[in-house]
């Protein structure tokens, strides 16, 4: 191939392409159907790594684990964006090129289609019987009568007609096929616009609210908050939500594989105040039934246990009291958490360990939970003392930072193990006071989200679907009727020919239907 | 809440369906096998040796083959490729090639040996029965748990098989699809076997995240789209094999199937039904995701694969509309799309970590 090109350039003086010429050539290449096809397949392949490797935006902890466990491959995969596929430059390059290609293809086609919609069907061929589908008959009727009848038939079947000469009629229908095609492609652009609006102006935040506590929608109350780049986080709508009660039920009746212990219902009963001074309202939040507040949806995406714990000093004065959320680690809610008591004297105290809603001590796994509901709750804790917040750095509320703490040990030198059931108190050794497990509460994990672009995306997606159906279902068909005098004089030969865009199994039938309808019309009129 | 007796009956119905589909599959196979000798005899006859006339079984065949031979010449749908293949096979002149064209038309009623026709009859009836038994199984399962029976992989597989078999049977009323039967009932049996042995889940209530009317809308349409894609993939596979045989000039039972372009158009007709259904699945899934997970798109592995499937089939539709790309290449893209569907169901549900963890495994 290359050899051939070289030979040609030696023999023929080719016009130089120039900068504009090259740009035009590149534009042609980019907007060609083959390029679009290639980019589509590339998009499919490019999307796959995000389902195979953990993604930072979805599960940062799992991503960090993966990198830690794969010291060789991990950092390289990270460098190439395999843990943030959908925000990576190469993925963006694929879809941006695809959309440029789409625009470059669709806009000229829209112009062509606009003209086609306003123009008349093309001139009928001299010999319609040579078209892919045709049918012929002879009739007594005059040519003009036949053509008039054909015109009536076309009008009844929503064909657009035009006569370029006195012996033929051209008819066309199915313009909506291309309209649908263009609507589909243009709508895809608006799907992306909606996504972009949501990304730029939307925000989401997560917060854990124990039963009995109130959440006020402001930045400092969130455990995590991720605003879009053009969001002013100080202007959140000032609603408040108090979690009154959280119901959780789990499968207890069906004991078969895969079902026992599965969650069956989560319902948060809440009291909401739309803005300061407004009347409080009772409502519920369930999975699949978010609560729509001013400018944001409130979703119940998580739940768990918050055992109520009281820590007292050696004189019996409470140094800590309240519900402490523990994060579930498995489907049976074996949960981890920490109780931090900065007010303890002389050293700060920190408890770290597990909450088990249905506790057993497994020979191999140690303390674990065997059912998600609080059937036989217990706390299994160990105790640390020292400085809870070294350097004042931010830290997770569920984990103790033991950098400047030492574990409290028993007289035998073993780490101190605290096992508590509801209502029980454990006296800490060495005049450190006591810890009491008062009872079990639950918490609601709320996700609050604002996405101003979602309706743009929804409407665009539905338009795309409508356009797609139209473009796939509707057939673009041209039917031509030509009349000519028969050889044996006096009679008229009527030829109907059909031409379709692409495969069209039904075209012959349409042609025959038209001829049949014309014949019937002639039969009744004469 | 669950009625174990009804769930038991649902399983009995399912096992009965599997037994019935086994018969259907065997009969479809017998039908295809039955076409073979008929072809050989047709070749003998077209080569000018009408000696077979003294054999009772062949009398019917010769008469039948002669009739289409007259119309074969000017029939617009005459199959050029298989006529060529046949001509080479029959070692005949042009006349025999034209003659064979008539015989190579899709197995029309009179053309099929009575043994094969009987097998096809039983196959058709048993496929209907199997589909109905699956429908019964799905209804009983739904009644036993008092919810829409699409809560886990097992139920998805059973309803998918039901849609596939019923869609095939209903479509068979309008067109002769006996050539496709084996390639529908075989996969159905495979999927049902997997459902019973690997994916089985006890009848029970739904997870909270599935308790939504969107389950009925989103998942049912997904299952329906999968069923139509499955029939399409079967047709595409038959097309590609037949096309390869036709190119190599070898004769086979495939010569008795509809001609290759017609097979390809059949598959395309299915894809243009399935693709909008899949698009709807994607949109409905996004609406539901917003209700259940706060965001309409989370790049969850299941979402990624659903999107990838959509893109691959979109690429198929583009490749088919692009001049210069052969129908064979386009068909391979369609099969790649179906491979993604299989991965999306059998691999992503079980092995990938994501929010669509409803396999019940």
Describe this structure in words.
The complex is a heterodimer of chains A (526) and B (361). By secondary structure, chain A is an alpha+beta fold. Chain A is built from 11 helices and 24 strands. In chain A, helix 7 packs antiparallel against helix 9, helix 8 crosses helix 11 and helix 9 runs antiparallel to helix 10. Chain A is elongated and about 125 Å long. The two termini of chain B are 21 Å apart. Chain B has a domain of 204 residues. Chain B is mainly alpha-helical and 361 residues long. Chain B is built from 11 helices and no strands. Helices cover 74% and strands 0% of the residues of chain B. In chain B, 55% of the residues are buried. The interface between A and B is large, with 62 and 63 residues.
Distance between the termini of chain B: 21 Å
SSE-based structural type of chain B:
mainly alpha
Count of spatially separate domains of chain A: 3
Helix content of chain A: 25-40%
Average predicted confidence as pLDDT of chain A: 89
Please tell me how large the radius of gyration of chain A is.
Answer: 37 Å
Estimate the strand proportion of chain A: 25-35%
Catalogue the unreliable spans of chain A. 1-9
Counting DSSP H or I runs of 4 or more residues, the number of helices of chain A is 11
**Main sheet of chain A, how many strands, which sense, barrel?**
7 strands, antiparallel
Low-confidence stretches of chain B: 47-109
Distance between the termini of chain A: 67 Å
pLDDT average of chain B, as an integer? 81
The oligomerization state is: heterodimer
The total beta strand count of chain B reads: 0
Shape descriptor of chain B reads flat
How many strands in all of chain A?
24
- Shape annotation of chain A: elongated
Q: Given the structure, what is the number of helices of chain B?
A: 11
């Amino acid at each position: 191939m290359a050899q051939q090109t070289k030979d040609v350039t030696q023999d023929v003086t080719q016009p130089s392409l120039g900068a504009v010429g090259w740009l035009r050539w590149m534009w042609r290449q980019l907007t060609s159907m083959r390029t679009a096809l290639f980019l589509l397949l590339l998009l499919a392949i490019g999307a796959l790594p995000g389902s195979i490797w953990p993604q930072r935006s979805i599960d940062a902890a799992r991503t960090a684990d993966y990198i830690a466990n794969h010291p060789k491959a991990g950092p390289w995969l990270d460098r190439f964006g395999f843990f943030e596929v959908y925000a990576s430059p190469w993925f963006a390059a694929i879809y941006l090129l695809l959309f440029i290609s789409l625009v470059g293809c669709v806009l000229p086609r829209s112009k062509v289609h606009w003209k086609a919609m306003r123009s008349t069907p093309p001139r009928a061929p001299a010999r319609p019987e040579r078209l892919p589908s045709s049918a012929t008959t002879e009739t007594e009727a005059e040519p003009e009568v036949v053509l008039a009848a054909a015109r009536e038939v076309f009008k009844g079947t929503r064909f657009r007609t035009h006569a370029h000469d006195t012996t033929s009629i051209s008819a066309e229908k199915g313009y909506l096929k291309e309209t649908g095609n263009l609507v589909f492609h243009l709508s895809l652009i608006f799907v992306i616009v909606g996504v972009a609006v949501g990304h730029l102006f939307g925000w989401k935040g997560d917060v854990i609210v124990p039963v009995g506590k109130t959440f006020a929608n402001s930045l400092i109350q969130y455990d995590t908050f991720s605003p879009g780049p053009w969001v002013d986080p100080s202007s959140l709508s000032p609603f408040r939500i108090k979690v009154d009660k959280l119901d959780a039920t789990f499968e207890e009746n069906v004991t078969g594989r895969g079902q026992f212990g599965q969650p069956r219902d989560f319902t948060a009963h809440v009291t909401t105040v739309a803005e300061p001074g407004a009347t409080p309202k009772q409502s519920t939040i369930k999975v699949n039934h978010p609560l729509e507040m001013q400018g944001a949806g409130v979703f119940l995406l998580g739940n768990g246990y918050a055992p109520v714990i009281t820590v007292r000093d050696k004189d019996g004065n409470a140094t800590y009291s309240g519900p402490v959320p523990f994060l579930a680690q498995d489907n049976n809610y074996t949960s981890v958490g920490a109780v931090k008591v900065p007010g303890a004297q002389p050293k700060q105290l920190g408890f770290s360990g597990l909450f088990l809603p249905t506790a057993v001590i497994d020979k191999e796994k140690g303390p674990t939970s065997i059912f998600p509901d609080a059937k036989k709750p217990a706390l299994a804790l160990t105790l640390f003392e020292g400085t809870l917040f070294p350097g004042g750095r931010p830290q997770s509320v569920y984990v103790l930072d033991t950098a400047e703490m030492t574990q409290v040990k028993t007289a035998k030198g073993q780490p101190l193990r605290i096992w508590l059931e509801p209502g029980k108190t454990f006296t800490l050794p060495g005049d450190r006071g006591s810890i009491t497990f008062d009872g079990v509460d639950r918490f609601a994990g709320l996700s609050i989200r604002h996405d101003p672009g979602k309706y743009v995306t929804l409407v665009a997606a539905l338009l795309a679907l409508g356009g797609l159906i139209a473009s796939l279902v509707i057939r673009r068909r041209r039917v031509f009727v030509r009349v000519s005098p028969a050889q044996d004089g006096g009679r008229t030969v009527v030829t109907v020919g059909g031409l379709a865009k692409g495969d069209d199994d039904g075209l012959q039938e349409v042609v025959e239907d038209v001829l049949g309808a014309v014949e019937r019309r002639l039969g009744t009129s004469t | 809440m669950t009625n174990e007796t009804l769930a038991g009956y649902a399983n009995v119905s399912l096992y009965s369906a599997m037994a019935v589909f086994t018969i259907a599959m065997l009969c479809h196979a017998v039908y295809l096998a039955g076409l073979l000798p008929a072809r050989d005899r047709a070749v003998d006859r077209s080569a000018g040796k009408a000696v077979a006339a003294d054999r009772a079984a062949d009398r019917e065949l010769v008469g039948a083959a002669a009739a289409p031979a007259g119309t074969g010449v000017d029939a617009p749908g005459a199959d050029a490729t298989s006529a060529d293949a046949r001509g080479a096979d029959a070692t005949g002149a042009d006349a025999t090639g034209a003659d064979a064209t008539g015989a190579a038309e899709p197995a029309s009623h009179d053309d099929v040996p009575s043994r094969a026709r009987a097998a096809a009859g039983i196959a058709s009836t048993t496929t209907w029965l199997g589909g109905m038994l699956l429908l019964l199984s799905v209804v009983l399962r739904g009644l036993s748990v008092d919810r829409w029976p699409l809560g886990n992989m097992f139920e998805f597989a059973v309803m998918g098989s039901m849609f596939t078999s019923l869609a095939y049977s209903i479509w068979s009323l309008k067109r002769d699809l006996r050539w496709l039967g084996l390639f529908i009932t075989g996969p159905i049996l495979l999927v049902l076997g997997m459902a019973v042995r690997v994916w089985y889940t006890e009848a029970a209530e739904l997870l909270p995240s599935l308790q939504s009317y969107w389950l009925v809308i989103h998942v049912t349409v997904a299952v329906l789209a999968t069923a139509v894609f499955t029939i399409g993939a079967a047709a595409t596979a038959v097309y590609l094999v037949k096309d390869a045989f036709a190119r190599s000039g070898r004769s086979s039972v495939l010569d008795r199937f509809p001609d290759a372009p017609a097979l390809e158009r059949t598959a395309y007709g299915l894809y243009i039904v399935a693709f909008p259904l899949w698009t709807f699945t994607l949109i409905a899934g996004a609406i539901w995701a917003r209700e259940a997970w706060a965001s309409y798109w989370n790049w969850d592995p299941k979402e990624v694969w659903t999107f990838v499937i959509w893109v691959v089939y979109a690429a198929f539709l583009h490749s088919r509309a692009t001049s210069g790309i052969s129908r064979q290449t386009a068909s391979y893209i369609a099969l790649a799309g179906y491979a993604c569907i299989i991965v999306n169901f059998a691999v992503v549900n079980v092995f990938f970590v994501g929010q669509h963890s409803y396999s019940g495994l």
